[in-house]
Amino acid sequence: DSGVTQTPKHLITATGQRVTLRCSPRSGDLSVYWYQQSLDQGLQFLIQYYNGEERAKGNILERFSAQQFPDLHSELNLSSLELGDSALYFCASSLSTGAGTGEQFFGPGTRLTVL
Amino acid sequence: GQQVMQIPQYQHVQEGEDFTTYCNSSTTLSNIQWYKQRPGGHPVFLIQLVKSGEVKKQKRLTFQFGEAKKNSSLHITATQTTDVGTYFCAGPPANNAGNMLTFGGGTRLMVKP
After folding, report:
1. No. of H helices and E strands in chain A?
2. What is the pLDDT of residue A100?
3. Mean pLDDT along residues A78-95
4. How far apart are CA A74 and CA B87, in angstroms?
5. Would you state the torsion angle of the CA atoms of residues A71, A74, A79, A84, taken in this order, to the nearest 10 degrees?
6. Are A112 and A14 in contact (CB under 8 A)?
7. Rounded CA gap, B75 and B102, in Å?
């Protein structure tokens, strides 16, 4: 158990819909990262927040957005869903400010299926 | 942009055989991290290498960071069934260590008992 929690575990929805994925980081971690893992691809970095502020952005689609709240939990919002958005979405947290400066602790993931 | 490639993509070994996965970056890295993801699980941090030419060992696992800080390898001696999973390398570019981690595509290791 990494200490990072993600809800829901599974999500099945239809094309065109909007969903929200939730992540609570490990106690004390200020950085939260979101990753997308598709079957034929590795881990794709989406976005990072540090203490409520956006810190780094990867190849995140405009249909996707995220935020980190004062209690440090984060939400990833995916809208106008397409079949290709079906994937495993991981949240990770770390103590450090930068993604490349220390160990990241991954949550169990949310499996999104778009029908 | 930065690309990180891993080979092989898949590897089947007999239990007891050795295994190596190689990681190559298109740009110089600030450091290299290795993660393991068991089937159905989430990535778990294994190690971080920072110095050029660095070698670190964890029991049967040996990690190396290349002299040019553009490549790395993970070698497992005498594989066991518990080693099954996908091994990912990841690193930030040297010119922006605080920036995003770029992950390699992973090497999926399967071990036959």
Report:
1. 0, 11
2. 64
3. 96
4. 27
5. -170
6. no
7. 21
CA B17 to chain A, closest CA, distance in angstroms equals: 26
Rounded alpha-carbon distances, angstroms, from residue B96 to A103, B8, B32, B81:
17, 28, 13, 38
Q: Is A68 exposed, middle or buried (0-12, 13-18, 19+ CB in 10 A)?
A: buried
Write out the residues of chain A at the interface with chain B, using a CB-CB cutoff of 8 A.
2, 33, 35, 41-45, 48, 56-58, 90, 92, 97-109
From the number of C-beta atoms within 10 Å of its C-beta (0-12, 13-18, 19+), residue A70 rates as exposed
Length of chain B: 113
What is the tens place of the pLDDT at every residue in B60-99? 999 999 999 999 999 999 999 999 999 999 998 777 655 6
Nearest C-alpha in B relative to A109: B42
Please indicate whether, in this complex, the C-beta atoms of A43 and B45 are within 8 angstroms of each other.
no
Q: Are A55 and A2 in contact (CB under 8 A)?
A: no
